[in-house]
TrEMBL record:
Residues 133-256, 312-419 form the Galaxin-like repeats domain. PANTHER family: GALAXIN-LIKE ISOFORM X2, PROTEIN CBG12054-RELATED. This is Galaxin-like repeats domain-containing protein. Keywords: Signal. InterPro entries: Galaxin-like, Galaxin_dom. The keyword Signal applies. It comes from the Eukaryota. It comes from Mytilus galloprovincialis (Mediterranean mussel).
Length: 543
């Protein structure tokens, strides 16, 4: 049972690892690659990412040219003549042969003089006049001869019926067959006179005296409301026919042609000077590159992780590693930066996730020397050992932090902070219990030892057990007051019984707090402060 559970754990772990690789990487041959750092070249993983492939490896398109899967330095040429680099500004490549002449015209592997020669079906032919054209491997003058499917006929004003020439004034051509008389049209393989007959769905019909409605296939139709294209009826009359379909000749093409002379992007008309055609789709902007069926600017974008002008790719965005850096698919200004997630940083002077490359502690996003500086909530101050007042550092020997502000120490009582706005109506009171009043007279209790008086004329002797008479009035002695010390005028004890909120930054609960010994009476003048809490003061006592 334990072995079975262990096998399941190993299998589950392997599945997680494989799934993790497939989620973060892409397939390349028999392995996987990271498109952020690598490039797949014909099933072989190469680096760096974003460079184009030349054979089975990447190459620097800014400095090299790839000829027949071999990279060459651009100093040898910027274009390829089969497997050799060459300079188009000084040479011409004809198939696989180089000629030391720029902008020449090739005919297969040879150069021709376009003023005296024509290249007809890969053969060099004479060009007696500028009007001569090619007919198979020969040249001819269109005014003197007619070329029908690579066959020359005389004279030059004839029409072609397949490879035969005919005079359209005398004959007609129906499905490759020359018929007479001339001026006829074809209804399938059958010639007919359009002045007297109509062709409907391959059937020749005789027109009525009124002319009748034309037919579209086997159906009559009104040409004022419909258009017929080779037997198929379409609603509307603002379109032209292209085979059996209608099209707008102003914006579309028919069989690769546009009546307004525009270029064709399959069946759409466009202008090469302002637009780009990619896979049958028209995009605004000239000279863009195509990535399958989409257009892109290679100075700003990449196609499937590859840039054709040698720039680096960052999440399909093109950038120069001499000017920018890529962090997890985002391009940032500045070269040779390291990444902290999606954010670039300079490891020499900045921290990433509270860690520095130098091993120093971090203050915010900056490393610092703790023996020379103090960090206060992301702000640095000198020297080390300063206190923090919010984000500000201060000298704890000379200053205090009072309610978020640094103030001189000598301006405050006992070196602590007091909120003057909360000190009101302070009244000094004596400390300790109130002394009991001293009796001014005394009446002694009857003495149990005093014998009762005897009713006689006998006068007894004084009783030794009788107490002496007690004074009927008592005057306490005045307390002895020692002279006050020159260095200590008062020994003051201030006790906050109710607690003053925010009395100091370190007092967070309204507990009583004793503050002892003030060596200079000028530091604490009760008349200067007011408090809502009760204060008690003992003065003029000499310690």
């Amino acid at each position: 049972m334990k072995g079975y559970i262990a096998c399941l754990c190993v299998l589950f772990t392997n599945l997680i690892l494989v799934r993790g690789v497939r989620l973060n990487h892409k397939k390349c041959g028999n392995g996987f690659f990271n498109p952020d750092h690598e490039t797949c070249c014909d099933g072989i993983i190469s680096s760096p990412a974003g460079w184009p492939c030349c054979g089975l490896a990447t190459y620097n398109a800014a400095l090299q040219v790839c000829c027949d899967n071999t990279p060459y330095p651009k100093s040898a040429g910027t274009a390829c003549c089969k497997n050799k680099p060459y300079d188009p500004l000084t040479e011409t490549c004809c198939v696989d042969t180089l000629y030391p002449k720029p902008d020449a015209i090739c005919c297969d592997k040879k150069l021709i003089n376009p003023e005296t020669e024509l290249c007809c079906n890969k053969k060099i032919a004479d060009r007696p006049t500028p009007y001569h054209k090619c007919c198979d491997i020969e040249t001819y003058h269109p005014l003197l001869e007619t070329c029908c499917e690579d066959t020359l006929h005389a004279p030059g004003d004839l029409s072609c019926c397949k490879n035969e020439a005919y005079d359209p004034r005398e004959h007609s051509c129906c499905n490759g067959v020359i018929i007479s008389p001339g001026g006829l049209k074809c209804c399938g393989p059958i010639p007919y006179d359009p002045n007297l007959q109509s062709c409907c769905y391959g059937i020749v019909r005789k027109k009525s005296a009124e002319g009748g409605k034309p037919c579209c296939g086997a159906t009559d139709y009104n040409p004022d409301t419909h258009t017929c294209c080779k037997g198929i009826l379409h609603t509307g009359t603002n379109s032209s026919c292209c085979g059996q379909k209608t099209y707008d000749p102003k914006s579309d093409c028919c069989e690769g042609k546009n009546i307004n002379g525009l270029d064709c992007c399959i069946d759409k008309a466009y202008s090469k000077t302002t637009q780009t055609c990619c896979g049958g789709n028209v995009f605004e902007g000239p000279n863009l590159h195509c990535c399958v069926k989409k257009a892109y600017d290679p100075t700003k974008e990449c196609c499937n992780g590859v840039n054709k002008i040698g720039l680096m790719c960052c999440n399909n965005k093109a950038y120069s590693n001499l000017e920018s850096s890529c962090c997890k698919g985002i391009v940032h200004e500045g070269p040779n930066l390291s990444c902290c997630g999606q954010i670039p940083y300079n490891p020499k002077i900045e921290c990433c996730k509270n860690k520095s490359a130098s091993g120093l502690p971090c203050c915010g996003d900056k490393p610092y020397n703790a023996t020379l500086q103090t960090c206060c909530h992301g702000n640095l101050s000198s020297p080390a050992g300063n206190g923090c007042c919010g984000k500000e550092g201060y000298n704890i020997k000379e200053s205090l932090c009072c309610h978020g502000q640094v103030v001189p120490k000598q301006a405050h009582v006992f070196g602590i902070c007091i909120d003057k706005t909360k000190l009101q109506g302070m009244t000094p009171k004596p400390i300790g219990p109130t002394p009991k009043p001293i009796a001014t007279g005394f009446t002694p209790k009857p003495n149990i030892f005093l014998p009762k008086p005897v009713a006689s004329a006998f006068t007894p002797k004084p009783n030794i057990f009788m107490p002496k008479p007690v004074a009927t009035a008592f005057t306490p002695k005045a307390p002895v007051v020692k002279p006050m010390n020159d260095h200590l005028k008062h020994n003051i004890i201030v006790r906050l019984l109710t607690g003053v909120k925010n009395f100091s930054e370190n007092l967070s609960s309204p507990q009583p707090m004793d503050i002892h010994v003030v060596e200079d009476d000028s530091l604490f003048n009760l008349s200067r402060y007011e408090t809502k809490g009760s204060c008690r003061r003992v003065s003029d006592q000499v310690s």
